[in-house]
Each structure stands twice: as C-alpha cells, then as structure tokens.
Design a protein that fits this description.
Elements (H helix, E strand, L loop, with lengths): L4 E6 L5 H12 L2 E4 H14 L10 H7 L5 E5 L6 E5 L2 E2 L7 H11 L2 H14 L5 E5 L2 H5 L5 E6 L2 H14 L6 H17 L12 E4 L5 H18 L1
Parallel strand pairs: 1-6, 1-7, 2-6, 7-8
Antiparallel strand pairs: 3-4, 4-5
Helix pairs in contact: 1-9, 2-4, 2-5, 4-8, 7-8
Bound molecules: 2'-deoxycytidine-5'-monophosphate (DC).
C-alpha cells in the first residue's frame, strides 16, 4: 500500500500529539513531534542565557545555531521517540513551564524555523510520516495528502496542560498555565514567519467536547480512505 504524509497542526494542548502517536502506531508510520524540536532549541537558548533573562539575545542564538544538533531516538520504556539535544536526552526537561514560557519567542525566529523545517522535510521525505506542529500543512509539507487542524477552547486546553504538569510534580497554578496557553496562542498566531493558520485544505477538528477515541476513529477512517486511493 502506498504511504502518505499526514500533517497535524493546531493550538497548544489540543491533543495533537496523542492523535498523531496513535495514528502513526496503527499505520506503522514514523511520528515526528516538531514542537519538541522548537522546545529543545528553546532549552539550549535558556541554558546559554540567550532568552529568559532581562535581555533577549536573538543574534547570539542565531550565531550559535550551527552548534545545535537535534535527533530523535526510540525510548524502549515508553515506545515513543525522545528528543536529544547535542547527544543529551532532554525529553523531560523540554516539557517544563520554564521552557514553555520562552519557546514561542524562540520559534518566532526565522533562522531557527529555517533550520528545523529543513530537518523536518528530510525526516518526512520518504512519506509514511505523521508530523504534528503549527506549520506542517502550510510550510513543511504543503502537499501532504491528509491535513488536520485541531482546536479546543483555551480553558479546556489549560486544564489538560495543568493536569499534565501536576502529574509530573511541577508546582504551578491553573491561572499561570492558562496565561501561558493564551500568550503562546497569541505569539504563534501573530508572528510574521509561518504564523499558525489553518491550511485551506485542512480538516478542522474542535475537540473541546470530543473524546480521544471518537476523534481517533474519525481521523483514522479519513486516513484509510486517502491511503486506499493513493
Ligand atoms: O506543540 P508544542 O506546544 O510542544 O510546541 C511548542 C512551541 O513550538 C509552540 O509554542 C509553537 C512552536 N512550534 C512552532 O512554531 N512550529 C511547529 N511546527 C511546532 C511548534
């Protein structure tokens, strides 16, 4: 059977990665979490004081980009791929609120996007990939055979993210998480380079009130229909 490219875009905490992982598993496709790549660059920027302090040094970060290498390696315990920054597994550290608070600023830098988009296009060049992010259907794979655009209310998304962080032992308040979700929405949707927009040919899913299983069934059936025709 012919392989296709599946692009899943949408706002933060809309469950993109849950659906993308399930879809990749069921189809035996590769799953690529592009948000993890932006988060890993943001972590690098934090560690080297390019962001997060009183002054932001974007020029410094751009100059340091050749020093940054990102890879994914399968984690046999979770069955998912972990992201590595210059050989170090940073999968857990990139999910903290400290990184979430600066990642949109880093993801708005054109040179960062150029570098990561190039790597993402290489990773998906053989098709048989499910990639999630903000610009997959518009910039990375504008010819993807299946494009999904996920939305949900900011309040529902903040509840989901809050629960995740609490489960991981972070000390955060719901209001702090809601503020971060809303601020990231604003920066991601209004940045000049590749803002978060729905591709014209993407199917929109508002999952504020839809369970994961129902969503997955519907999306999987879309994928099967396209794969059969490909
Ligand atoms: O999906 P996420 O919340 O892990 O993404 C982290 C940030 O990275 C998000 O605020 C926007 C940015 N991002 C992006 O600009 N383009 C992508 N393809 C993926 C993520």
């Amino acid at each position: 059977m012919k392989k296709i490219t599946i692009a899943i875009d949408g706002f933060s905490s809309t469950g993109k990665s849950t659906i993308a992982k399930q879809l990749a598993k069921k189809l035996s496709y590769v799953y690529v979490d592009t948000g993890a790549m932006y988060r890993a660059v943001a972590l690098y920027a934090l560690r080297n004081d390019y962001v997060g302090g009183e002054e932001t040094n974007i020029d410094g970060l751009v100059a340091a980009l050749p020093e940054i290498t990102l890879n994914f390696k399968k984690n046999n315990a979770t069955g998912n791929a972990d992201v590595f920054l210059n050989g170090e597994n940073v999968e857990d550290e990139i999910r903290t609120l400290r990184v979430s608070n600066v990642v949109s600023v880093v993801a708005a830098v054109s040179e960062v996007r150029q570098k990561l988009v190039e790597q993402q296009q290489k990773m998906g060049s053989e098709k048989g990939v499910v990639m999630d992010g903000r610009d997959i259907g518009t910039v990375v794979f504008p010819d993807a055979e299946l494009k999904l655009f996920m939305t949900a209310s900011a309040y529902k998304r903040a509840v989901r993210r809050y629960k995740e962080l609490i489960d991981k032992g972070e000390t955060v308040s719901y209001d702090e998480v809601l503020k971060n979700v809303q601020e990231r929405d604003r920066i991601d949707a209004t940045r000049e380079d590749s803002p978060l927009v729905k591709a014209e040919d993407a199917i929109e899913f508002d999952n504020s009130d839809m369970g994961i299983e129902e969503q997955f069934e519907r999306i999987y059936n879309f994928a099967l229909r396209i794969i059969e025709k490909a």
